[in-house]
Structures are given as structure tokens and as C-alpha cells.
Write the C-alpha cells for this entry.
Amino acid sequence: MIGLIGAMAVEVEALMAKLTERREERIGMDTFVSGRLFGQEAVLAVCGPGKVNAALCAQSMILHYHPAWVLNLGVAGAGAEGVGIGDMVIATAAVQHDMDTSPIGDPVGMVSKINLVEIPCDAALRERLRQAAEGVGVRVHEGIIATGDQFINRGDVRQRIHERFGAKAVEMEGGAVAQACYMHGVPCGVLRSISDGANGQSDMDYPTFTALAASHSQQVVERLLTAL
Ligand code: ADE
């Protein structure tokens, strides 16, 4: 069983449409749709935006479906110069850029309890994602993906996150899915396609480019699952 989580319907709906032998189950306020997807047993969910929604959904999925790995896919804002709309970013690790207990002596971004700033993504899954992404015909970057409970639409905020964490993309769920996976010993991946520059134009670019960017991520997953 493979777990796939998007924050919004548009981020998984093309995959949902390809799912056969569908079964739907509700846990709390999350709906899990399982079945066969490109030859694999898979479970899909739309977790809703933000870290708490994402962590709860990932934990329910892990406990109920015991996936061999979980992939969080979807769209993101660009986190660095040289990363553009339509590009793909595969996380080497995820950080939670709004976690900050530095006033009491911790590094900025350190997630208490697991005591990590960078929550690692599975190396073998990353390599598979890279190979799958290369066939989609978009530029592919690998690096840190930064997660926080904010839609970033200011260049100075994006720059601060980049300088602090080296982020290549900013979004709102990956670091929470990665934490849930880490806490349960489940391999994790985060795959994002860039919908906006996380700057003053994001309120225009995000609605314009989200559908295209979301489709890129889902094409990568199709290629990934087909190749397994
Ligand atoms: N997801 C897509 N664009 C984003 C942005 N600019 N900030 C946070 N999450 C995003």
C-alpha cells in the first residue's frame, strides 16, 4: 500500500479519477479513498491546508492503512532565485519554518520531541521521484522544502526563509507529513510543483498556475507508480 496526500482536491483529483476498485472510508474529518492506481495498491486523501490538518491526516493514514511510504504532493511557492513557476522541487528534507523556540536556546526551526530542524525524506523514494520527474519535461530541483502555516506572498519573507533554511520551495504541509512519517518510522517523500513566486504577485499567479502545477506533480506520480 502506498499513501498519497494532497492539501487540496486539485492536487490529487487527476489521480483520484484513475483509481479503480475504489473504497471510501472516513476517519474523523478525513476521507481516505483506496484502490488500485497504475498497478499499485494506493490510498489517497485531501488533508486540507496547514500543518495540523496534514499531520492528523498522515497519522490516520499510517495507523489505518500501514503504507510502505507516504508521498505529499502538490503545489508550492518558489523558495529561491532560479526556481520558477512550473518547475518541480523534490525534497531532500522538510523544515517547519514557523517553529521557533530560539528564545529558550533552541535552533530556529527545531521541532521539539523529534529534535530536528531538517526532517529527512527517504533517499530511495527521492531517487525514484527524480527519475519520474525527468520524463515530464519540466526543470527539476532537489533541496529543502519549507513548511509553515502561512501563504507566503512577500519577497522579503520568502528571502528570510531561504536564508535561514536554504529552502527551494515554500508550502504548508510537507514538513508536517514528514514529521508524522518520521514519528512512525514510515518513509516519506515531498514533491511540489511551483505555482507562484511566493512574492507580491502570488495572489495573481497562484490562481492562474495552480491547476497546471498540480497536474505536473500528478504526472510524476503516474510515472513513478507505473515504473514500480
Ligand atoms: N502553496 C503554493 N504557493 C504557496 C505560497 N506562496 N505559500 C505557501 N504555500 C503555497
User: Anything to note?
Assistant: The chain is about 35% helix and 30% strand.
